[in-house]
Amino acid sequence: xxxxxxxxxxxxxxASASLLATACVEHRPIxxxxxxxxxxxxxxxxxxxxxxxxxxxxxxxxxxxxVVGASSPNVVGDYAFPGFESDPMLVxxxxxxxxxxxxxxxxxxxxxxxxPNDNLADTDDNVLxxxxxxxxxxxxxxxxxxxxxxxxxxxxxxxxEVRQTFKMDFASTSMEPITSVAWFYGEFLHECATPVATHLxxxxxxxxxxxxxxxxxxxxxxxxAKYEAALAGYKSAQTALSAAVDADIQALEADVVVAxxxxxxxxxxxxxxxxxxxxTFGFELESTYLLTVQGGCYNMTTLANGTGTSTIRYHxxxxxxxxxxxxxxxxxxxxxxxxxPEEIGEKELxxxxxxxxxxxxxxxxxxxxxxxxxxxxxRWDPSRADMTFYFQPGFPERYKPFFSHIAEATNAVxxxxxxxxxxxxxxxxxxxxxRHVGDMRYSFAQWHHDIDTTRGLLGYGPxxxxxxxxxxxxxxxxxxxxxxxxxxxxxxxxxxxxGARLKPEEDKAWEEIDCAEGSTVAPGDESRCTFEKxxxxxxxxxxxxxxxxxxxxxxxxxxxxTCKQRPRLTSALFNEMRRVxxxxxxxxxxxxxxxxxxxxxxxxxxxxxxxxxxxxxxEPAWNSFVWMTGGKSRIMQELIENKAAVxxxxxxxxxxxxxxxPFGPHALGxxxxxxxxxxxxxxxxxxRGLRDRIVQDEEQLLALTNIEVFDANDAITAAALSSxxxxxxxxxxxxxxxxxxxxxxxxxxxxxxxxxxxxxxxVGLRHNFxxxxxxxxxxxxxxxASVMDYVSPIEEASSPKGWGRYDELAxxxxxxxEAARTEAMAEDVLYCTDEHRGRSPLCRAFDFGVTPxxxxxNAIERYDWLYELRNKRAWRKFxxxxxxxxxxxxxxxxxxxxxHLAIFDWGGGGVQSVLKRLDQVxxxxxxxxxxxxxxEYDEISVDFYNDISAAVGINIAFYDAIxxxxxxxxxxxxxxxxxxxxxIRVGIIxxxxxxxxxxxxxQDISAYNPNVATYAAMYDAPFGAQNDALAQRVLDNxxxxxxxxxxxxxxxxLNIFAAVTNSNLVGNIQLRDRIAIKRFNRxxxxxxxxxxxxxxxxxRSDNAPQIFVHDxxxxxxxxxxxxxxxxxxxxxxxxxxxxxxxxYNESLNSNASGDEDNFGLKILLAYYExxxxxxGF
Length: 1177
Hints:
It is a single chain. The chain is an alpha+beta fold. Among the domains are: 7-210 and 274-324, no CATH class; 1070-1177, no CATH class. Helices cover 38% and strands 17% of the residues. The protein has 34 helices and 35 strands. Strands 1, 2, 3, 4, 5, 6, 7, 8, 9, 10, 12 and 13 form a twelve-stranded mixed β-sheet that branches. Strands 18, 19, 21, 22, 23, 24 and 25 form a seven-stranded mixed β-sheet that branches. The protein has a four-stranded antiparallel β-sheet with strand order 32-35-34-33. The longest helix has 34 residues, at 671-704. It is globular, with a radius of gyration of 36 Å.
């Protein structure tokens, strides 16, 4: 019988052999009456304890479900995608008359043998799910006279309890497979699609028995030898490929494929013995889902393709890990656990230093009568021999060498830490044994090539830990082929936009153009500029005469200076920011220095580093130990409801993006019109709150499963290190990288970074979003001190490969001996993670920069440069603009956290008080530490205030610049092709709407420090005198309505301002008067309040602005003839109204017809009177 014979037939063959041994039919072949589609389970093997490799009486299994395949395009890719897996669960099996039940193996409360008072007789098992089936015996048929025949059949003569076999119906299961991820997960998926069919995938049921090392060696030694013989040729082909140049790659890849096929021919399916020694069985089910119309899981791809169903393949894996062994003899035998769990206290200091995933082992505390827990570190056993990852079938050969580098870097850290474990990557059929993805005994490195089977992932690095101990038994490193070409494209596009060298000779390929060794096309590259200057000088030698040569050399010299320049921040957006910030023209450098101050205190970096740990604010709802009102239950109870509410408002945003008026047909100045605007403002506020809550919860859920999502809008501020390079051609000088070489290098760099990040999760590391601000521990060329950070793949692509300093120390602490741990704890690396990401100002994903001002200006540059890709259809055949609102929303609102940092933490002496407290604490244990004087702390704080003040100013100016972008530069209106109806360019009306709300509206500051909850407006608390003046200028700009936009939008800032300043949440109550207008129905009433002749003074023929003076104060007067209204505004008290009326008067009086549109003036008056003259508004 072949090794590839399915296990169910091997088991039946074994049963048949035992029957033949006692029968008189050995001269006749067995005839089988068993259907080959049936699967027969040995009931005893499932339910009896394994006393050989586990403690006596242990009948528990570990169970996990993994998605191992999906149809494409996958309409349920948000929920079930290749590689996605559940956490392992501890389970037991039991049988009922018509079902195999999988029950929860966990028990909160134990029945202690020595305590007669804690009997659990009425505590039933918790059934997780079950499969229907039939109990039977597989026997040779007996004739009527009792003689056994050679016909093998199913037999049900005995009672069902004593029948030895269970024929399982895999299609009849009580629980949809995806529910194994979490009990509520299936409901989420069913909002989107419903399961319509489930089947067992043919030839996927397998069972291997527990075996000793000697049994394993006996069964697999022969095939291992054959495999090793073929492996040498495969390794040789791999080595040749890794050293290949561009021209040789395709041929050498073909050689590797041939060698790989020869190697695969020596391997076969696993035999009777489990190759790891652990008893295991598994199978695969495929489920087909039908989309629901209301669920919204369809997208552009599935709609264009007409896809309404998806088929998902799930691998069910059950295994009994070897937990230890009995030692001693006779009655002295004791069971010794193979692994001792690493327990971590709830508030141990190391939790603030290094992030390791933890597993809560829950129990009933018999002493307190309450729920108790022990938190175990999720880690591999440091004392085991190896941590083996297998490349899945079809893993791209060109990427495999990356993993050798990761293994070398990791093993160096293990060795330094004193751990014996070593990492290695081998083929899935290593040793001649074929292994299958989803089998819980094995760890895999997987490459998912089809970009339409997922929600758009870069990587995913789950690990499977024993819930009893936290020991990681298996992990999977998933890489997804999405975004790679996009990152390469955006890199080159960005560099060219900001001054990178365009192709100097358009009629030649890049690789045919000479260049200077070591140079790049990056802006200002010294080697390239010098090389091009030399070439230009040489060309001048052939000039016609001395004068021509002199002129030629002058041009070459000017070209050198131009080449060295690195123009940045030169768009209309940044020019408007400079204008409103009053940056003098002579000070403009077109660099970040125009906006970001340079620290002057020598210890600024040191003190900045010390402050950062004090700025970590966790989301209370995600605390594991304290249940709070509106806490974790909210996620399950409200997520779907909140999504529906958010989707309703987003329809309105979509209509605005499509150039429609959200306020309907109402006149803006009417009561109905104003109420429509106020209602929209309330809806916008609600949408923001729900949207931010949903995003934070989803990010946390993804983070807990180690999923890294691809987002095209994060690949922006490209690092010049990744630009096209000049390389040496053996025997052919130096030329530029070809398009293929350049693309391959960038993509390879990105894949490496994603791979080591996901492998970090595999070994237990959590995210560390403080890596990008931990400048102290960054090495040369690094953008973060941790690979567990999220930095844009483009920004970090060509940074040094390997672990960051934080990662090395974290691994050292998790896996090291006592000395290694002590050394790691003495370091002051920075750490914050997913619970802090939503609230902490500098603990964010995809930030670039260290100080608040650096981060803010980089974020704005990212927004600005992305316009060409975000707003224009350009090269796209299909273009999905549905995510536009979110991408702009994040760009506009996310940097407001720098303002929160200013007003709640660093303002009012906050920097000084924290540094003084830290010094006082240090002085208690360190004789060299001292507490400084208040004056010294004030001097230290200057750089902090300068930087945060700059960050807030950048933020305010950014909002002004968005509002004031002219339509000729970036049109506010979305442009459609009139004949075909496709969007050609998305207008920036939503950008302007968000900027207006960000600056004008009250900001709900409840998602910052959980001890702070308030409302504030930027113009009411701008932080510092300089920003106060800036905020007033921006306020007047927005209220003045002199910018390009739709008529309905033109005065909306006034409406928001009037509503906000008439609330009790604004500190400066005089702000409301900036738009105040006094309205008089009779002229005599006006002159009674001011003075007789005031109107005559204002309407003199030589007084076009219609200004008059009363009691030393300047006023402006306007008369609206169509309403018979006399209007007056105070220049000092109401500068916005004053300017509105003055400009109206000047325009009216310069118009020969004496007629002028007074709509804007009426709107201003209506807003002011609506909120000031009516009770309750």
